[in-house]
Amino acid sequence: MSAKRIFKFLVIIFLLLAAGMGGVIWLSMQTPREYAKRIDIPIAVRQENLKKVEEKREILQQDIETKPEWEFTLSEVEANSWLASSEFQDQVEIYLPQEISEPRVQLKAGEFVLAFRVTHNEFQGVVTAPLKVVSVQKDEVQIRIEEITTGLLPFSWQQIIEETLSHQQNELPVGIEWSENDEESGTLLTVRLDQLAELNWQLDEVSIEEGQLQIKGSRSFQSDDIPAAASPSEDDRIQSEAAPSAEAGGNSAPGG
To answer: So where are the chain's domains?
Structure first.
């Protein structure tokens, strides 16, 4: 399973999670200013940053396969350039409900804000969902979508599951669990990474700074990955047995 495929699936999952959380997201009939700023990316800027994203993914793939530790850093403009690309539209957006389009991200200190446009006969506007990483363990990440204002999307979380995740469940490299607590704590999402064991890697850290996302991990090398020490040849063994030992060479005191 390549890092490129994992990268795409994680983007799909984050979009689905945010899209399905009626009651813990902000619905706006007007285009928020921060969202509008990230929609219009000049072509030259987008192309330059798409090259950077591709280079970083290739390096990530090599590092995951060959190094004990790896890290992946993505800037906000790089992420949004990829979300506006034809690759995203052709290979990722097709898995999303047709009502969702033009996703963009805003990276704040400790917070990942996801926004996208919804076009539906019951609602047309922009959905904004703030996500915070609560904890990172080697085999799972917990993310919280906090309460902003109440409101319901024209489609439910169950509908999202049935129409999208259900028929992709066997192909997804991660598992998802969620629990809704009280209004103050919002919804806690647990993304399980145990199905990525075939890559022998674990997630160590996810940090979100102003304008930048950084993910660090490590790889546990299996015994098959480490070359076995060469066994001594038959000639070496015979020579070793024939060589005089230290005792045979005489270790007695002078004059003995």
So the answer is: 3-225
